Each structure stands twice: as structure tokens, then as C-alpha cells.
UniProtKB/TrEMBL annotation:
This is Tyrosine decarboxylase. The keyword Lyase applies. Residues 450-464 have a biased composition (Basic and acidic residues). SUPFAM superfamilies: PLP-dependent transferases. GO terms for molecular function: carboxy-lyase activity; pyridoxal phosphate binding. Its cofactor is pyridoxal 5'-phosphate. GO terms for biological process: amino acid metabolic process; carboxylic acid metabolic process; phenol-containing compound biosynthetic process; primary amino compound biosynthetic process.
Length: 486
């Protein structure tokens, strides 16, 4: 195959775009004419400059726009242009600057404190550009062998970087994939568990299946349960309390499961969380797995946000007992410098995922090169056929920042400057760390869930810290006449 430099040779003049007669396909017939190298370079530079300027001026915009619903729809034409105007790209970019940016919430602003962060990095953004430029669809191994194999390599790299057990990695008989979001990961895991259970007890008993979570679990799980056909009143959201730092109690879980068994129902699935959305509570994985195992229940760990903290070995203890889980997922796009979207999911027994989500090989998806080989066809690991080449971005991010680099970034946030606020509420153990640092003590691996009864715990202190930082920001804004300073 021609190397890119040859392939995007200047002999191609974008005939398709400018209406001239198509270039004669003589010298390099293998080269597509969809990409005009000169136009691409010019527009590419415009976009890179645009993004660089956007970041440079981020602090000039209010983080949240003061607009009312319909503000943009009222100014844009109701129909797409039938022909492009002259310099359509430049004029569209100007509209992005003048019409669209002023109506955006600036998630990358250092003063954006809502939700969990959507982390981005130079390499993450450029990785996205590479993915879009190369534009392959790796649904089977044969559909893009290197994309599939890079994904296998990178999920093992990432799993090792996060100190996950070998049994979840390809290297240990498990395996992982890169999906868009945690909502997808949780649904895929649940569907695998459901079909495994129904194969044992018979499909007709789907109405007997019961799933478990805590009252802090992300709504993604309830949604997944609905999609997977679990009855609405068979989703047990077990009550948590402040004294337990809002962690799911193994005793309560055991009681709930036993009550369901006694009622003739079938416990199916537990969604445990490391870093809940409300308070970043951490469920005690090991003890919950012991309870779940006694009822033949699949355990999934949703570590969408806080999972990134596991690059720091000193936080590995928050997932103690993780060897017993069936599946695990985290969003690298929340706190691991991989721009949207990138959710990594690992399963201990890929065959169960494939049994639920695999499709009969259609004739057009068969390929002689993979025939007879045990290859991974990632379309069988998720709901969709078309998939993105996310592995390329994740690989670049891990390669260019390194595992230690990622650890350093997490610790920076832990250090408790403005970034701590930007990162939202930190995981409970991280919050404990902030407290120790504030006390001027050396950071030590702390208890996963602190907070003795009746005494303010790390979350309280973090809120207090947040309040102080917000007050600081407000004072600063006031001092600068309301214009935020970067
Ligand atoms: C963000 C988050 C989710 C949802 O993640 P998506 O990738 O948006 O689906 C689920 N669980 C937790 C704990 C989260 O923080």
C-alpha cells in the first residue's frame, strides 16, 4: 500500500470538489480523490489555529452562557444550503466563533465546576483528528486487523496501568474493549449476565430476574436494566447512609438477595460503584463479591470517574477484592486525558459477552485471512456494528504521557489547588488525602472510607474547601470588574 505521503500526493486536485473534470486515474489509481491535500492542509491549519485560540481565550467567555431556548435556532436558516457559498468553510468557522461559541457551556474552562470533568489533552485531541482522518470501521479483525490488535494491546496496557487483576486482561484469559460510554458498558455486561443466567434457568423466567445497586448508583444502571428487560420493580436500590460514607452495605445486600430467593425470584446482577456520582462513595468490592458469589450473581464495577485514580498505586486498595468481579468499566475521557469518548470495559470471560452480543457471521463479514484463527471480532463485544478506532487515541495518550505521567496528573489534582474543584468532588480516599495535606502532613495511603460517627468526614471537608475556593474565585472576579482572569 502507498505510504500516506504518496497517497495524498499533490497530483490529486480535488476534482470532485471544484467541478473540474476528474483527474485521469493513471499514475496512482489506488489513491482516493476524496481528500484534496492542499485544501485539507489549509483547512486543517485553520481548525488547529481556531482550537488553539479558543483555549487561549477560554477565560474571556462566561462559563455558562446567558441565552434562552431557541436563541440559535432562531438565527440559523431552517434549511441546509443547496450549494456551498464561496469560502464556505471559513465562513462556517466564523459562525462557530460568533454564533455558536457564545452559546456554549465551556467544559474545558478552568472555572467549569459542574459534573465530572471531560478531560482533554493535546494528544487526546490530535488522536481524535487522526482517527477521523484515517476513518476505519474495525468491527471485525479483518475489517482492520491493526485497529483490532491495537485495541487488544491498549486495553491490556490500560488495565495494567490501573492495577486491574490479570484475569480481566487478555494476558490472563479475560479481555477488554473501548466503548463510547459507561452506559453502554453497563448494558453490555448486564446482557451477558442475563443470557448466561437464562441459559441455566430457561428464557421464560426472565420476569424472575432481580438486579441490585445502591441508592447512589448512576441512573445508567436503571436504564440498562430496563433495556435488558428486567421488570421495573425488580431493580433493588439498597439504602445507604452517611455513617457508611454512602457505601453499599454487604449485610443489606445479603438481606435483600435472601428475601428475593425466599420469594422465588432469581438474583442476577450487582452494579457496584467506585466513585459514585453524588459523593464519590466507594462500595466495598471484596465483601460485596463474597455475598454475590453465594447467590451466583454477576458483579460489575462502575468506576466511570474515579477509576482513573487507580493509576496511583496508593489508591489500589479502594478496589481490594476486585479479582472476584466479572466485569469492570471506567471512562478514560473523564479523568485520564482521553478526549470524548473513551470508556474501557473489561470482562473475565469474553465468551459470555460474545454469547449474548455476537452475531452469526454474515457472508460479507467473512474473511479468508482470519478463517480458522481465534481472532477478536469487536462487533460481538457490544451493541453496534460500526465502531470508532478509539484505541489509536488511547494508545497515543498512554504512550505520550506514560503511566507515571498519568499518576503525576492525578496527584496534581489531589494536591488540592483550583483543579481539585474543577475535578468535581474527589473520591473519598482522595478527599482524605487533601485533608492530610492541609494539615501539613505527608500524604499517606489513607482509609478508603473515613469519617467516624458524628465527626465531619472527608466529604464535608471537601465541600468546605470547595466553598472557600468558590468564594476566592468570586472575590477575584469582583476585583477584576467581573471579568474573569485566566
Ligand atoms: C459518568 C458516570 C456514568 C455515566 O457515564 P457515561 O459514559 O456518560 O455513560 C456512570 N456511572 C458513574 C459513576 C459516572 O460517574
Amino acid at each position: 500500500m502507498a505510504p500516506p505521503s504518496q497517497c495524498f500526493d499533490a497530483t490529486m486536485h480535488g476534482a470532485a470538489h471544484n467541478g473540474a473534470a476528474p483527474a485521469v486515474a493513471d499514475a496512482k489509481p489506488q489513491c482516493p480523490t476524496v481528500l484534496d491535500a492542499d485544501v485539507f492542509r489549509r483547512q486543517g491549519h485553520q481548525v488547529i489555529d481556531f482550537i488553539a485560540e479558543y483555549y487561549g481565550g477560554m477565560g474571556d467567555h462566561p462559563v455558562h452562557p446567558s441565552v434562552t431556548p431557541g436563541f440559535l435556532r432562531n438565527v440559523l436558516p431552517a434549511e441546509a444550503p443547496s450549494r456551498p457559498e464561496p469560502d464556505a468553510f471559513g465562513s462556517a468557522l466564523r459562525d462557530v466563533r460568533d454564533l455558536i461559541l457564545p452559546g456554549m457551556t465551556h467544559w474545558q474552562s478552568p472555572r467549569h465546576f459542574a459534573h465530572f470533568p471531560a478531560s482533554s489533552s493535546t494528544v487526546g485531541a490530535l488522536g481524535e483528528a487522526l482517527i477521523a482522518g484515517i476513518n476505519v470501521v474495525p468491527f471485525t479483525w479483518a475489517a482492520s486487523p491493526a485497529a483490532t490488535e491495537l485495541e487488544m494491546v491498549v486495553v491490556d496496557w490500560l488495565g495494567k496501568a490501573l492495577h486491574l487483576p490479570e484475569s480481566l486482561l487478555f494476558a490472563g484469559g479475560g479481555g477488554g474493549t473501548l466503548l463510547g460510554t459507561s452506559c453502554e458498558a453497563i448494558l453490555c455486561a448486564l446482557v451477558a449476565a442475563r443470557d448466561k443466567k437464562l441459559a441455566e434457568i430457561g428464557e421464560r423466567r426472565i420476569g424472575d430476574l432481580v438486579v441490585y445497586c445502591s441508592d447512589q448508583t448512576h441512573f445508567a444502571f436503571r436504564k440498562a436494566a430496563r433495556i435488558a428487560g428486567i421488570l421495573r420493580d425488580h431493580c433493588r436500590a439498597i439504602h445507604t447512609c452517611r455513617e457508611d460514607m454512602f457505601a453499599l452495605s454487604p449485610t443489606e445486600l445479603q438481606a435483600a438477595m435472601q428475601a428475593d430467593v425466599d420469594a422465588g425470584l432469581v438474583p442476577l446482577f450487582l452494579c457496584a460503584t467506585v466513585g459514585t456520582t453524588q459523593t464519590t462513595a466507594v462500595d466495598p468490592i471484596g465483601k460485596l463479591c463474597t455475598v454475590a458469589a453465594s447467590h451466583g450473581v454477576w458483579v460489575h464495577v462502575d468506576a466511570a470517574y474515579a477509576g482513573s485514580a487507580l493509576v496511583c498505586p496508593e489508591f489500589r486498595h479502594v478496589i481490594d477484592g476486585v479479582e472476584a468481579v466479572d466485569s469492570f468499566s471506567m471512562n478514560a475521557h473523564k479523568w485520564l486525558l482521553a478526549n470524548n469518548d473513551c470508556c474501557a470495559m473489561w470482562v473475565k470471560r469474553p465468551s459470555e459477552l460474545i454469547a449474548a452480543l455476537g452475531t452469526e457471521q454474515e457472508y460479507i463479514l467473512k474473511d479468508a485471512a482470519s478463517e480458522g484463527h481465534d481472532v477478536v471480532d469487536y462487533k460481538d463485544w457490544t451493541m453496534t456494528l460500526t465502531r470508532r478506532f478509539r484505541a489509536l487515541k488511547m494508545w497515543l495518550v498512554l504512550r505520550c504521557y506514560g503511566v507515571r505521567g498519568h499518576g503525576a496528573r492525578r496527584r496534581e489534582v489531589r494536591g488540592g489547588d483550583g483543579q481539585a474543584v474543577r475535578a468535581g468532588v474527589l473520591p473519598a480516599p482522595v478527599a482524605g488525602e487533601v485533608r492530610r495535606r492541609e494539615d501539613g502532613q505527608r500524604a499517606q495511603p489513607g482509609p478508603a472510607r473515613g469519617g467516624e460517627r458524628g465527626r465531619p468526614g472527608p466529604i464535608h471537608e471537601l465541600r468546605e474547601r470547595r466553598r472557600r475556593l468558590h468564594a476566592q474565585v468570586r472575590r477575584r472576579e469582583h476585583a477584576h470588574g467581573g471579568v474573569p482572569r485566566r
